[in-house]
Structure formats: C-alpha cells, structure tokens
Amino acid sequence: MSNKIRLGILGGGGDSLIGVLHRIASSMHDKYQIVGGVFNPVWEENIGFAEKISLPTNRIYKDFDTLVEEELKLPVEERMQIVSILTPNFLHFPMAKKLLENGFNVICEKPMTTTYEEAKILNATLKKSKTIFAITYTYTGYPMVRQMREMILNGELGNIQRVDAQYYQGWINPVIHDKEQRANTWRLDPKKGGISCCIGDIGTHAFDMLEYVSGLKIESILADLNYLYPDNKMDIDGTVLLRCSNDVRGVICTSQIATGEENSFIVKIYGDKAGLKWEQENPNFLYLMEDGQPLRVLKPGHSYNSQLSLDGSKLPPGHPEGIFDSMGNIYKGIAKAINNEPYNHGEFPTIIDGVRGMGFIEKAVESHQKGNVWVEIENVD
Q1: Residue 290's pLDDT is what?
Q2: Neighbour-count burial of 102, counting CB atoms closer than 10 A to its CB (0-12 exposed, 13-18 middle, 19+ buried)
Q3: Which residues contact 224 (CB under 8 A, 6 or more apart)?
Q4: Crossing angle of helices 17-27/323-338, nearest 10°?
C-alpha cells in the first residue's frame, strides 16, 4: 500500500480554477494521493469528472454525508486522512465541523466560514479533535514572501513603522453593472458568500499577509466600503485603516472593480532601517529599499535566502515559480505536520489565521455600517 497521505476533495470539479490548483499542489512533492471525494452535487457530473481525471470511482460519493459515513467504515489505515474543502463559502463551516468531529484532518479554502462565531466554534472543535487544520492563504507559500517574513523576524528592517497592502482586481466589472447578473452571482449572495464579497474574498488575504510577514497583530480597524448599487448587498471595493501592535499604522486597499487589473496584490513593509516590497504578479522579485542605497532585488533559490525560503524553492535561480508552487509549498508543510515531522510554523496558515480573518471581515463591515468608526479586533488563541 502507498505510504502517501490519503486525500479526499470536496468541490473543485469541472473547470474550477481552485480545483486544478489544489490537485496540482497536492501532487508536487509526492506526499499525497487523491483517493476520492465529491466534486459536484450533480451525480452525473461528479462521477464523470472523476473518470475524466482518471480516479477510481469506488470512493466517489453522492454527497458529503455519505463520504463521511462510508469512509468511517473503512479501516483507519485505508480511510482518508485529510479532506480539502473547495466548495462555496456557506458550506465550509458545516463540512469542516463534521470532518473535525470525526477525526479527519482538514484543508479549507478561505474565507474559512461565513461568520466569526462559526470560526470560533471550529477553533473549539479543533482543540477537541487534536487534528490538523490548515487554511489556504495561498500567497504565504511563495519563497520570496517567506524570505520577507524571515528578514523582518531577524530584524533586518529594524523597528517596523508602517505596513501597507493593496489588492486590486477587475473581474466583477462585467457582473456588477448588470442587475440580473449581480442578482444571480453566488459571490454577491449573502446566503452563500457571507456578509462580504471583496473584503471576504481578497481583503482577508491582505489582512493575513500583513500579519504573516510583519509579525504584528492588527488590533483595530476603520473601514470604508463601497457597494456601488443600492440593491447590491455585498461590498466590491473598500479601504481599511489599520492600527497594529507596537503602535504601527497601516492600510489595506482592496477592489474588485479596478478596471483592467488582473490580480494585483502588492505588500509593503517599512522599518526604520529598510523597507521591503513584493508584488504577486512578479512573485520572484523581493525589493529591498534602504535610504542612500541603490534598490536591491532578491530572487528565489539563492544561498543568501533563508532556509524557509529555500525549502519552498523547487527550481534553480532564474527559473520562475508561481501560484501552483506556492500552494504546493503549503500542502508540503501540512504533510510534515500530519507525518509528525519537524516544520517551521510559517509553512502553512492555521485555524487561527482563519478565525482572525473572519474577525477582520465582520469588523470591517461593522466599522462601515457604524459610520466609518474604529473597532477593535478580538485576539484568539
């Protein structure tokens, strides 16, 4: 029998980008074997997709509850060890909770749940189950993001004095201006997407990234969100002012109506000695900025990088790595945790990142609804 980690997948069938991303990522380091799942709620499409990607169909189940029921009948050494949840947002919580209660490890897409209260319940459930839970804030897997984190942790920027994240997309433009389309898009439906679209989808990436690389905690925020049309119930654009630990200030600017933008995620951290800047659309370049010095560009795979960065580099210098590699690095870190191998706590985002992300979403909406006031973000452990 294979010694690979037995992986099940929920959602991500058909032409789902996120499904392709997770399947390729799980295969990168030869740590996982996909053994089954539920790719689509329509049985014909579910089983047809499994056949299309050459999976045995004996563990393709008609629905999630059947998956759990049937997998628990199998011997421990045969059943799924971990399940990836790639479904629409409203299904994340019930699926993750039931999986944890039944002893499965979980990988969950973000946002982790649709409410902060659900996120806290999941955290309490995880503590009882003593399994592994990871949330896929994908960009933390990039080698140069990890290099950024380690340089800041080692004090190379000095005292951090400002943090800044900008995440601009334009994908929702064709949808938002058409009344019928915006009424029938699940991401703009609070029953399926939660209380936020833009902040919930990409703002949480920015929030988690700033805390991940800087080592700071965002303690309070002031948000100004944009809904564009009176009948649109979820934000599609927003600016959030930040007050962080150590009296550091910052800002998160997010938009899904930034016309012409594709996936422009830019992170900047400024210390009293130097600054660092990273751009997702050019992920192999980390810019080091110092007063009175020429701009320096750090790239992956070189010996001057940290061990955490080098562990996430699969190719020699000069060979580009991208988002599949980034997600692959997260899956690699999760595999180490499942196999009880030593790992750096920066190798994959945990449930705490997910809980804090949900707290950020709710507080951003609350701040906006109260007239753009400062609100505090609860700390969790």
Answers
A1: 97
A2: middle
A3: 238, 239, 240, 368, 372
A4: 50
Residue ranges of the chain that CATH labels 3.40.50.720: 5-138
CB 188 within 8 A of CB 232: yes
Please enumerate in sequence order all residues whose Cβ is within 8 A of that of 136, keeping only pairs 6 or more positions apart, or say none.
22, 107, 108, 109, 110, 327, 330, 349
Q: Mapping DSSP to helix (H, G, I), strand (E, B) and coil, where does residue 361 land? A: helix
Sign of dihedral through CA atoms 122, 5, 90, 171? positive
Domain 142-315+350-369 belongs in CATH node 3.30.360.10? yes
Q: Report d(CA 317, CA 314) in Å as an integer.
A: 10
CA distance 285 to 117: 38
What residues does CATH 3.30.360.10 cover in the chain? 142-315+350-369
SS3 state at 26: helix
**Top CATH class, 5-138:** alpha beta
Looking up tokens 């010694």 gives 3
Residue type for position 7: L
pTM for this predicted structure: 0.93
Give the tokens for residue 40: 């689509």
Q: What is the pLDDT of residues 204-254, one digit of tens each?
A: 999 999 999 999 999 999 999 999 999 999 999 999 999 999 999 999 999
Residue 112, token pair as written in the block: 């982790």
135, HSE (Cβ side, Cα atoms, 13 Å): 27
256-294 pLDDT, tens digit per residue, is 999 999 999 999 999 999 999 999 999 999 999 999 999
Q: What's the confidence (pLDDT) of residue 1?
A: 52
